Amino acid sequence: MGALTDKYCIVGVGETPHMRPSNRTTFSMACEAVKKAMADAGLEPREIDGMTSYQAGDSTSSSHVATALGIRLNYSLDIVGGGSSTEALVAHAIGLLEAGYCKVIVIFRSMNGRSGRRMGGQAPSGPVPPVRAEGDAQFYMHWGWTSPAQWFGMSAMRYLRDTGTTTKAFAEVAVAHRYHASLNPKAIMRTPITIEDHQRSRWVVKPFRLLDCCLETDVAAALIVTSRERAYDLRQPPVFIMGGTARTMAPNSAWNYSRPEIHYVAGNYGRNRLFGMAGISHKDIDLISCYDAFTFTTLIQLEAYGFCGKGEAGEFVKGGRLQIDHELPCNLSGGHLSEGYTHGISMVIENVRQLRHRVDDACPGWAEGKHTYDRAAGCRQVKHARIAACLGWGTETTSSSLILRGISA
Q: 8-117+215-405: which CATH number, 3.40.47.10, 3.90.550.10, 3.30.1330.120, 3.40.920.10?
């Protein structure tokens, strides 16, 4: 186990609804999400002294949110980043807490991802902004690659060719995540789908169909990290941070599509550190969140983090293996494919609620504090939820992760 295993906890979570459009500012939504996370933890503004966020030039700042909520910060930071940021900022928070820079830290993401700046696209009110020919873009632009679907689609096509996997493996991911969304009152897309529905959905960029692609939503979400000792005094059961990785990189930040072994991604370099720090193995994991900007990113991470062998993800997900009550429940809120897109923070929040055994669902027995586990009646709490893995994704070359455990584990 790592030196800091179980010393720090996630103690509060909160978010706005997923909206399309929000008709709100990212500042307004961030304030709402942070206030809800504070209320969830039972914390007052005077008890918060650190705040961080991540964005892509499309959001508000920690200092403005703190000022609006009556919080005076001892530390604030707003980083540039997307899907690998939540887990990385949790690690960042642990370092700050351990060193004594602050005592309680909020992490938030606020984005008008549908009505504002869209990933690889444009805001409804204006033209597509010019793209600078720098970084990875210098290799993409002249091929006409301007969206994540095009970038990751090329990797996915190579994966299908190299492994013999078919797009029905993508469908298994889409069906599982949509099933979980059907149980989640907060999800945008709640109508269940089948393998056949996936295969009939229109092409976006081969090999991705419409049901392979994440949603675009306006939303804000926040979580709060503090010490184990402080956590026991707060409103909710603490969720302990066992270990993780923070923006672990592949050897080269530029992704070479002609490399001999293309799918040895950043997660492959982080998995031994992740499980070694937590002091557990894969068989101890009861549920996961697996970044699903596309169905393919979930598949490749299952391999990268060692839940199945190289090239075996297509077989691994067959037969509903990722669905609740099966072997490895994945993205229990519906994930980015069906609940809404938050650049990953909502997946960590869902796992926190599952590990508390207090997931906010429509379970008919929840008013009495007991889950029925009756899926037909709307209960979406995982049985025996003890330990969760949160697998973040930035690109093939960057990945972050967390392993969390509930108080009963």
A: 3.40.47.10
